[in-house]
Design goal:
264 residues, alpha+beta, Ribosomal Protein L22, Chain A, two-stranded antiparallel ribbon, 10 helices
């Protein structure tokens, strides 16, 4: 498949645009022309859809050729694919291959295998057709043109709203918060905290004894001192003997203490 670019000036029988051609296609030019008549003067999107759903064998070859022509226009001539259409398409007779088949009585039947050369030329749509095409695509829901048009309208609406809001602010909108009626929510909270009674955390420190708080370490030291001043059972028993008082329990306790001392 050969692809060439047609200059804008040259022979009178050549149209301006970008061309792609395929040579020696193994089918007759008659069969290719039937399909080419379907896509002539159609935009490339419509032509591709027609060839895609066509049942003829020539449609496959011509569809590949159309894609090649569009690619040449994009890369060589810097054209936009959506703005192209099939300006011209034709099929020329190629070389005919002759084959023979045996027939009755020693005769030979001639078989002609036809070939053709197919050419497609694409160029940019005229301005009026291009505008109608864009309007039609924008009106069709779900299309890319419709989405782009919707985005453009949305952006324009945003710009208008911004201009209106800026104009309203510049005409004399109150600048201070009091003039706008904005209330500071922190000020009432601060005033309420100042008027509230003093809490337990803010109250002055009081004496521990007045508050009824007992220091456990100090109480343990006092208890130890009191127990150290108390007389032992032996001392009590000796004092009672001197006074002539006999207490059986005290004697038993004294005997137990003496036994413990001896064991030690």
């Amino acid at each position: 498949m050969a692809a060439t670019t047609v200059p804008t000036t040259g022979k009178t029988n050549e149209r301006p645009g970008t061309r792609a051609s395929v040579r020696h296609v193994r089918m007759s030019a008659y069969k290719a022309r039937v399909v080419l008549d379907l896509i002539r003067n159609q935009d490339v999107q419509t032509a591709d859809e027609i060839l895609k759903f066509s049942e003829r064998e020539a449609a496959q070859v011509i569809r590949k050729l159309l894609r090649s022509a569009v690619a040449n226009a994009e890369h060589n001539d810097e054209q936009i694919a959506d703005d192209l259409y099939v300006a011209a398409c034709f099929a020329d007779e190629g070389k005919t291959l002759r084959r023979f088949r045996p027939r009755a009585r020693g005769r030979a039947g001639r078989i002609r295998k036809r070939t053709c050369h197919i050419t497609i030329i694409v160029s940019r749509l005229p301005e009026d057709r291009l505008e109608r095409k864009k309007a039609k695509d924008a009106a069709r829901p779900g299309s890319r043109a419709a989405r782009v048009a919707g985005q453009q309208l949305e952006q324009q609406g945003r710009r208008r709203r911004r201009r209106r809001s800026s104009a309203v602010e510049g005409e004399g909108q109150p600048s201070t918060t009091e003039e706008q009626g904005i209330v500071d929510q922190t000020e009432p909270a601060v005033e309420a905290a100042a008027d509230a009674p003093m809490s337990q955390t803010d109250a002055p420190e009081t004496d521990a004894s007045d508050a009824g708080i007992v220091d456990q370490q100090e109480a343990a030291v006092e208890a130890t001192a009191e127990t150290a001043d108390e007389p032992t059972a032996t001392e009590v028993a000796e004092a009672e003997e001197e006074q002539g008082i006999v207490d059986p329990d005290a004697q038993v306790a004294a005997a137990a203490e003496e036994a413990e001392e001896e064991d030690k």
